[in-house]
Amino acid sequence: MLRKECYRYREVKDASVQATVATIVGGIKGVKSVLNNVTVTPPVVITPDDPLTMAVKDATKDFTGITATVKDGIIYVTGN
Question: Are 53 and 18 in the same domain?
């Protein structure tokens, strides 16, 4: 039995990949039309360390014995 419809929902990194998916699927023998529900995900934005360091310093200022450092977007917390 040949399925006439196939639904796949995926996310891709940019619009060119989204278009390529539709082209490839549309080129499959027997496919009459393509409803492209593939979504483009926005890129992840990582905050630079400087503003993050300032925010961590402010958030931990009232906790004695706690040291917090930031390196490559990761917060390291030590203390008692």
Answer: no
Predicted model pTM: 0.43
Q: Which of 70, 68, 66, 69 is nearest to 46 (CA)?
A: 70
Give residue 14's domain range. Answer: 1-44
Q: Are residues 1 and 40 in the same domain?
A: yes
Q: Note down pLDDT in tens along the chain; length 80 residues.
A: 455 565 566 788 888 888 888 888 889 888 888 888 888 888 877 777 888 899 999 999 999 999 999 988 889 999 98
CA distances 77 to 16, 49, 50, 52, 55, Å, are 41, 15, 16, 13, 13
Q: How many domains does the chain have?
A: 2
Same domain, 37 and 59: no
